């Protein structure tokens, strides 16, 4: 299972990289805004910093505009993945980019049938947003095993990239459901590592060591 970080903050990416378990980065216009930096600067820096896939999102809402933007975004590096919204124009753009050998991440997916459409359009990644479904009182995670089953039924190679991850249970469930990737905020990476019994056990080991070391 791959771990991406869901941020456009370079310091956060470096922090996650230092753990040695980071495979890629996902961004979106809101995360770019949160970084407080101009898009071109931050995108260029992230693509250089991270050897793995970096998702950069288009903002056009028509296929021709998306393809034009994709051309520009692809210039930031060989690792760029074009993030497209799951709307009809996004599916059209996905199909065309796939035909050109360009990697895509179809985003804002909230249902298994939407995920099926993205796979049929040749998406490299599908991004179901589990946290945002939780936010409206639906069990967001329910759709992940369903997408897994649909993809496995027909041998689709589109990777399930669980997005809108809010806490460690989302990551735990992603791994159990056979998701290919989870894109995780730095705070959740830090929460994943922690366990009170690990800290308690380590404190005891260090205390005992003090009394026996030479
Ligand atoms: O990158 C897309 C997704 O992960 C957004 O998450 O927390 O804004 O719903 P969130």
Strand order of the largest sheet: 1-2-3-4-5-6-7-8
Radius of gyration: 19 Å
Q: Could you say which small molecules are bound to this protein?
A: SN-glycerol-3-phosphate
CATH-defined fold name: TIM Barrel
Helical residues, percent: 40-55%
Q: Estimate nothing, just give the exact number of structural domains.
A: 1
Number of helices: 11
- What name goes with the CATH superfamily? Aldolase class I
Shape: globular
Number of strands: 8
In short:
The chain is an alpha/beta fold and 214 residues long.
Structural summary, described in words:
The chain has 214 residues and is α/β, with parallel strands linked by helices. It has one domain (2-212): TIM Barrel (Alpha-Beta Barrel), CATH 3.20.20.70. It is 52% helix and 17% strand. It has an 8-stranded parallel beta barrel, surrounded by 8 helices. α6 (112-120) runs parallel beside α8. The protein is globular. The mean pLDDT is 97. The site of SN-glycerol-3-phosphate has 9 residues, from α7.
List keywords for this structure.
alpha/beta, TIM Barrel, 11 helices, 52% helix, 17% strand, binds SN-glycerol-3-phosphate
């Amino acid at each position: 299972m791959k771990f991406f970080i869901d941020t456009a903050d370079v310091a956060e990416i470096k922090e996650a990289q230092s753990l040695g378990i980071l495979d890629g980065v996902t961004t979106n216009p809101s995360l770019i805004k949160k970084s407080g930096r101009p898009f071109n600067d931050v995108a260029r820096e992230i693509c250089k910093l991270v050897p793995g896939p970096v998702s950069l999102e288009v903002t056009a809402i028509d296929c021709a505009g998306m393809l034009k933007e994709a051309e520009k975004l692809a210039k930031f590096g060989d690792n760029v993945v074009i993030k497209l919204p799951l709307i009809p124009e996004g599916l059209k753009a996905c199909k065309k980019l796939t035909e050109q050998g360009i990697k895509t991440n179809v985003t804002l997916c909230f249902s298994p049938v939407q995920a099926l459409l993205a796979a049929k359009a040749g998406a490299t990644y599908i991004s179901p947003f589990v946290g945002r479904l939780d936010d409206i009182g639906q069990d967001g995670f329910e759709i992940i095993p369903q997408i897994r089953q649909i993809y496995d039924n027909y041998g689709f190679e589109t990777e399930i990239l669980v997005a809108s991850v809010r806490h460690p249970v989302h990551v735990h469930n992603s791994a159990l459901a056979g998701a290919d990737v989870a894109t995780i905020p730095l705070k959740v990476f830090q929460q994943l590592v922690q366990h009170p019994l690990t800290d308690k056990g380590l404190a005891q080991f260090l205390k005992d060591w003090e009394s026996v070391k030479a």
